[in-house]
Design a protein that fits this description.
The complex is a heterodimer of chains A (295) and B (537). With 295 residues, chain A is mainly α. Chain A is built from 9 helices and no strands. Chain A starts with a helix and ends with a helix. By secondary structure, chain B is mainly alpha-helical. The longest helix of chain B has 36 residues. The chains are: A mainly alpha (295), B mainly alpha (537). The complex binds protoporphyrin IX containing FE and copper (II) ion. The site of protoporphyrin IX containing FE has 25 residues of chain B, from helix 10, helix 11, helix 12 and helix 13.
């Protein structure tokens, strides 16, 4: 609908779409998901968060519709290089906002490990706290706190599944880069092959991550409720896992688009944006591997 | 609007029908209007809550509301004013003015622009609806400190998700501003030719992208602590409630600059116009803004002096905070120098701007007092803090917003507002706002705590004055609605010229009034002689 209204625009003008029907759908989806989730969290009896699922369904529907519109315009050559630059900036700063989101949780991890846990153990300003409230607490990492919240737990060995997962994600960044070079060279079959390899590596990563969680919950007694260790461990790896999932879905969409003949060797912003995102998720994992698993 | 058809040539058609025109719009001017109307509505809603607060505080003792509801009022008043009124108002200005000021056809990502706005009404409906839930609205203050905030009713999840949505909206809005300014400037519009309003918004947008996600993370931790058994802020599990304060203020201090930097921009547009002189020290203004933004990231714990930080932390945050007054001082001196020996006239926007310079500076000075860690032990959590932040936020941010509305409304609507009514509004507001907030300094120094519905009888007199000032100020803003309404409708007004103000420079004054639906679509280079600043770089 909006396409027809603007089709008379010449190519060298900045493309300004005239009507946007998807944002309001997105807002409705978002609100349904939020209200549904909040109601679900507050309910005292077991229930299925139907409204939340409905909200997510609407959001997915919105994304399909919105991106379909953008793709159609892109393939219809409505975007000049200046529009392309806007998209690039949008993606870069979006990723930066994600970096800050993770920085928040890494910062919390740093703070508890270096400040609040030692204080609870009696260091520095924490002397009185320790003797009066938590006497006998050592304050060494890993810990579930002086109240032994969640009970005894064991750690995940970083050199088993996490190391494998590190290798998998690093490899996926390489396969993705090979795919990108192939795209620039115009070798479409090759691009699709390497992209599928990338998605598979991401999927195996996620599979192992789930394995690891099952192991933690069933054998190590390490849960989200295992004090501050469990909190930081599961929130950091959990949010990362959600981002890998999202990235893998986006890569899949890109692969399908390539199969349908989208993208050109000299212009393929959609591909690059997803690649940036994937590399970002990769770097976050490196941070996790070092600061959560190893150290 | 009677003039709707006068500029109706091919490029200029507005979508027909309410849904297409407003719900599905991608036009930066329409979206700017939506933002401004929304902000105004929230300003009135937040103001209504403030009226109840001042009513309760009119006399010692409990007369109208219960303590818990009082706490809900202060919390929601602040959340609504910060996230619903001040921030969206500035985004409204950004939408309307930035493309016009840099010669761009629209914002860089117009569809996303629509979404940034249309998240807000939903998020606020959710947030405000908590008033009607079991246990009422959040009541731990806008700073949402645990453990108190975790002890409320069902509101937490709703408040947290509303904040997530507001964050998404702000981040998308900020991305749009950055992409627009960096990518959409017309040929010959170099960075150091940009109006200061554009510069301040560029820097504000970076602040937003850097800290809104951190805030999202902080409230997410509240959510999981409350509903999923994590212990981020629970000492028994090895966490620390003070951790929340650190994260919150890492967001919160830049956030207060998010609310003041665009005001600096607006004031820096208005003062030169009515002083008929270029802005004094344009380049130093840009650098000072950047310096303030940078410093805002490394001073957060001045909100936490009395929380029990290590001594080195107290010292560091004290000195770092004081550093901010240097670039802020640069700005104030530049504004004064701009007016110095200017051929000044005192139209309504100028009056608000001069009041801004004086009253904001008072707020800066009380800030400087509180920055001294040992004395902040006395001031902290008293009405002195309340006085401080209302001087910087009401006579600062809100005055700048009102100044900006008077300054640009002729360009937006094509009609001059009534100068006589505008001046009445100004004097009425300026006198009453000082009656409202100035006594609060003394109340705070004498030890009256903030966020308490009752107080010792020795505070009675100043509280009564403060409430009287509050009601008068509130009423003045209802009067403002009427002035704006009359201007939009063209009642008792004259038609605005294109230039509007005799001394005005900048691209916005070289397009018709009201601004046509689409502007700067031809990509023509801008002419230096139309610009206010042409620094050679
Ligand atoms: C020279 C500049 C400034 C300095 C030195 C300064 C310093 C401070 C300090 C030390 C506090 C904490 C006091 C306490 O709680 O004990 C504070 C609180 C506050 N300031 Fe400022 N400030 C300055 C400018 C501003 C500006 C420009 C704004 C906003 C536009 C602002 C908004 C606030 C707010 C909202 C609070 C209270 C937050 C709360 O506890 O709810 N300040 N300021
Ligand atoms: Cu601060």
């Amino acid at each position: 609908m909006s396409n027809t209204e603007v089709s008379n625009k010449s190519h060298d003008q900045y493309y300004v779409p005239h009507l946007a029907k998807w944002p309001i759908v997105g807002s409705i989806g978002m609100t349904l998901a939020a209200v549904g989730a909040a109601t679900f969290m507050n309910s005292e009896t077991a229930s299925t968060p139907v409204m939340m699922y409905l909200g997510f369904a609407v959001l997915i529907f919105m994304m399909f519709g919105w991106f379909a519109e953008v793709i159609k315009e892109s393939e219809g050559n409505l975007y000049n290089p200046q529009v392309d630059t806007s998209f690039r900036m949008g993606m870069v700063w979006f990723i930066f906002s994600e970096v800050m989101f993770f920085a928040c949780f890494f910062g919390a991890l740093w703070y508890v490990r270096n400040l609040s846990v030692p204080w609870l153990g009696g260091e520095g300003v924490g002397l009185m706290t320790n003797t009066e409230l938590w006497s006998g607490y050592e304050g060494v990492w890993p810990t579930n706190g002086p109240g032994d919240v969640g009970g005894k737990f064991e750690l995940i060995d970083p050199y088993h599944l996490p190391l494998v997962n590190t290798i998998l994600l690093m490899a996926s960044s390489i396969t993705l880069t090979i795919a990108h070079h192939a795209l620039v060279d115009g070798a479409r079959k090759k691009v699709i092959g390497w992209l599928i390899a990338t998605v598979l590596l991401g999927a195996i990563f996620l599979f192992y991550q789930v394995e690891e969680y099952i192991e933690a919950y069933q054998h190590l007694d390490l849960t989200l409720e295992s004090g501050i260790y469990g909190s930081t461990f599961f929130m950091l790896t959990g949010f990362h896992g959600m981002h890998v999932t999202l990235g893998a879905i986006m890569l899949t969409v890109i692969t399908i688009r390539l199969m349908r003949g989208h993208f050109k060797p000299e212009s393929h912003f959609g591909f690059e944006a997803v690649a940036w995102y994937w590399h970002f998720v990769d770097v976050v994992w490196l941070g996790l591997f070092i600061f959560v698993y190893i150290i | 609007m009677s003039h709707a058809d006068t500029h109706d040539h091919d490029h200029d058609h507005k979508p027909k029908g309410f849904v297409k025109r407003w719900l599905m719009t991608t036009n930066h001017k329409d979206i700017g209007t939506l933002y401004l109307i929304f902000a105004f509505a929230m300003f009135i809603l937040g103001g209504a809550l403030a009226m109840i607060i001042r009513l309760e505080l009119f006399q010692p003792g409990l007369q109208f509301v219960q303590p818990d509801f009082f706490n809900q009022l202060t919390t929601m008043h602040a959340l609504i004013m910060v996230f619903g009124a001040v921030m969206p108002a500035f985004v409204g200005f950004a939408n309307w003015m930035i493309p016009i000021m840099i010669g761009a056809p629209d914002m860089a990502l117009p569809r996303m622009n629509n979404w940034s706005f249309w998240i807000l009404p939903f998020a606020f409906t959710m947030l405000v609806s908590t008033f009607f839930m079991d246990g009422g609205a959040p009541a731990a203050g806008w700073t949402l400190y645990p453990p108190l905030v975790l002890q409320g009713g069902k509101n937490l999840a709703f408040a947290v998700f509303a904040i997530h949505m507001l964050g998404i909206s702000s981040i998308m809005g900020a991305i749009n501003v950055i992409a627009t300014i960096m990518n959409m400037r017309a040929p010959n519009m170099g960075y150091l030719k940009m109006p200061l309003f554009v510069w301040t918004w560029l820097i504000t947008a970076f602040l937003l992208i850097a800290v809104m996600p951190v805030f999202a993370g902080a409230v997410t931790m509240l959510l999981t602590d409350h509903y999923f058994g994590t212990t981020f802020f629970n000492a028994a599990g090895g966490g620390d409630p003070v951790l929340f304060q650190h994260i919150f203020w890492f967001f919160g201090h830049p956030e207060v600059y998010i609310m003041i930097l665009p005001s600096f921009g607006i004031i820096s547009e208005i003062l030169p116009t009515f002083s008929r002189k270029p802005l004094f020290g344009y380049v130093s203004m840009v650098y000072a803004t950047a310096a303030i933004a940078f410093l805002s990231f490394i001073v957060w714990a001045h909100h936490m002096f009395s929380v029990g930080m290590p001594f080195g932390g107290e010292l560091y945050f004290m000195y770092a905070t004081m550093l901010i007054s240097i670039p802020t001082g640069v700005k104030v001196f530049n504004w004064v120098s701009t007016m110095w020996k200017g051929a000044m006239t005192f139209e309504t926007p100028m009056l608000w701007s001069i009041a801004f310079v004086i009253l904001f500076t008072i707020g800066g000075f009380s800030g400087l007092m509180m920055a001294i860690a040992p004395v902040d032990f006395q001031y902290h959590d008293t009405y002195f803090i309340v006085a401080h932040f209302h001087y910087v936020l009401v006579t600062g941010a809100v005055f700048a917003i009102i100044a900006g509305v008077y300054y640009w409304i002729p360009k937006w609507t094509g009609n001059m507002y009534s100068e006589r009514l505008g001046k009445i509004h100004f004097w009425w507001s300026t006198i009453s706002v000082n009656v409202l907030f100035f006594p609060q300094h003394f109340l705070g120094l004498a030890g009256m705590p903030r966020r308490i519905p009752d107080y010792s009888t020795q505070f009675a007199e100043f509280n009564m004055w403060s409430s009287i000032g509050g009601f008068a100020f509130g009423l003045a803003q209802v009067f403002f609605i009427w002035i704006v309404y009359r201007t939009i409708k063209g009642k008792g007004t004259t038609k605005a010229t294109d230039r509007v103000w005799e001394g005005a420079k900048g691209l916005e004054w070289f397009i018709p009034s009201p601004a046509p639906h689409h502007t700067f679509q031809d990509g023509e280079p801008v002419k230096d002689e139309q610009l206010a600043h042409v620094s050679s770089h």
